[in-house]
Amino acid sequence: MSPSQRLTESLASTPLSSLPARALRQAFAAGYGAKEARRDVLAGLVVGVVALPLAMALAIAVGAPPQLGLYTSIVGGFIIAVLGGSSTQVSGPTAAFIVILAPITAKYGVGGLLIAGLLGGVQLTLMGVLRFGRFIQYIPHPVTTGFTAGIGLVIATLQLQDVFGLHLHSKPQHYVERVAAMIEARSTASMWELGIATLTLAILLLIPRITRKVPAPLVALPVAAIAALALGRWVPGTTISTIGTRFQTELNGLIIHGIPQLPPLPVLPWSMPGADGHPVGLSWDLLHDLVPGSFAIAMLGAIESLLSAVVADGMARTRHEPDAELIAQGIGNIIVPFFGGIPATGAIARTATNIRSGAKSPVAAMVHALTVLAAVLVLAPLLAYVPMASLAALLLLVAWNMSEIKHFIHILKIAPKSDVTVLLTCFFLTVAFDMVVAVSVGVMLAAVLFMRRMAEVTHAEIRDSHEGLPRRPGEGVLVYDIAGPLFFGAAQKAMAALGIIADRARAVVLRMDQVPALDATGLVAFESALEELANHGCLTVVTGLQPQPRKVFDKSGIVNVPGKLILAQTLEEALDAADAHATATRLPPRRSSRTTAQQRPAAQ
Predict the structure, then answer these.
(1) How confident is the model over 343-352, as a mean pLDDT?
(2) CATH fold label, 459-584
(3) Which stretches does DSSP call E strand in 15-152?
C-alpha cells in the first residue's frame, strides 16, 4: 500500500468524535508552554491588526455594514480556531466570497445574507461528517486557478466605484451591468477620492519594501484618514466619503455614525432587514430561494479553507485534518449569523501572516479574534474616519494578490491545450455568471478531458512475436496485451479489437497485468467481447489480474466456463490452456478476400 493510500485510510478510520478541536488538542498534547504561548500571542496581535481593516472592507464590499465583518472575525475566527483541524489557519471574511454574497445581499438584504450563511454552514458541517474533506483535492488545478482569477477581476472592478467616488443611480447584481452603470456615472468621479485611494495604495506597496515588521494597513489607513480630514477642512467643497458618513446605526434612539462601540450581540438572522428594509422573516419560499447561494457558500468555503490549510502545512510543516476543518468551518458559520456575522472561511493571506509572525497553534487565531474585539470596544469611534476609497484600495491589492496573474499567464504558456481550455472557461464563467457555474462546468469539462486522456493512455496490441513470453504460442493462439486502466472511453477502444480477431484464432490470451483498474464500462466491454469470442468458438484466457480488476470480476460473478473463459494464475498456465484448446479444436482454413471475389461469379 502506498503512503498516500495509508494516509487516506487512516483519515477515513479516524473516529468522528475525535475530529472537533483536533489541532488544539494535538498542540497541548505535544507540550504547550510559556514559549509557545508568547509566540502565539504576538502572532495573534499582528494578524488582528491586519484583519481589522480587511474585515470592514470585505463586509462593505458584499453590501453589509462594516461591523458585520468585524463580528465575523471575532466570533467565526474564534470558534473555527478552537474546533478546527489546522494548527495555524486564520478564518474570517474573505475576498473570494464577494462575488457570491454581494448578489444575495442586493436581492434579500442583510437578513437573507445571514440565513444563506447559516444554510451554508449546515452543508459544510455535513461535508465534514460525511468525510468529503479529502475529496476536495480532486478539483483540477486549472478550475481553482480560473475561478480565483475571475473572482480577483470582479473584486477589482467593483472597487472602482469607491476609488473614483462614483455615485451610481442603481447597483445591478451582474458584473457586466455593474460595469455599464459605473461607466454611465463617470461624470460623478472625484479626483480627491482617487487621490486618497492612490495615496493608500502607494503606502500599502511601499511599507513591505521598507519593513515587514509593521503591517502596511496600520500605516496606510491612518495616514489616509488624516489626509481626508485635512482635505475636508482646507479645500472648500471637498467631501471624502468615510465609514462614518456612509454607515449609521440606530442604538437606543441614538444615531451612531460608523461602527457601534459594542461587542457582537445575539440576534436572530431572520429579524435582520431584507432588501426593503423590513425584517426578512423566515419562510420555505425564502429558504428555497437561498439554497443555490448557500451551496455556493459551502463549496467555496470548503475549497478555500482546505486550500488555505494546505498552504499553511507547506509553510509551517504541519499536517491538517480536512474533515475536522470542514466541521469547524460549518459550525462556525452556523453560529456566526446569530451574532450578525457574514460567512467565514480560511483566509490564505492572514494565515500566511500568522505563520510568518511565529504562530505555533490555534491559540494565535484565537488571540487574533480577541484583538479585533478589543479594537471594536476601544477604537470604534476612530474607525469612522477611515475613507471608503482607502478600503477600496486595500481590496484592489487583495484582488491582485489572489488573482496570481503571473501564475495564470504561466499556465497559459506551458499547460496542455485541454488545461488552458478549462482555465479560460472557468475564468470567463466566473466573470460572466458566478463561481458555482464556473466550478460545475469546469469540473465536468475537466472530467470529459480526463476520459479522453485515459482513452489515449490505455492501449492494446496483438503480439506478433514471442519476445517477452515464456515460449512461442501454439498455432491458432493469439496473445493480446492491454496496458492502462479500462475506464469509460478507453474500455471500448481496447476491447473492440477482440471482436475483429475472433475469426483468426481458436484461443486468445488476454494479458491484464498492466491494467490497474476496471470500471463498470470496462466490465461491460469485456463481457461483450467475451461473448463475441465465444460465439466464434474462441476461448478467452485471462491472466495477470491485479487486485482491483479481480475484485470487480469476483463481484460480477465472472468465473471459469469450459470452452469460453479461463482465469489463469500465470502466463505460462494461460499459454498451456490456450494451446490445449487450439489443438483440440480444428482451425478453419482461411480464404483471402481476393479468392472469395473470384469464386463468387461461379457460385452465382
Answers:
(1) 92
(2) Transcription Regulator spoIIAA (3.30.750)
(3) 91-92
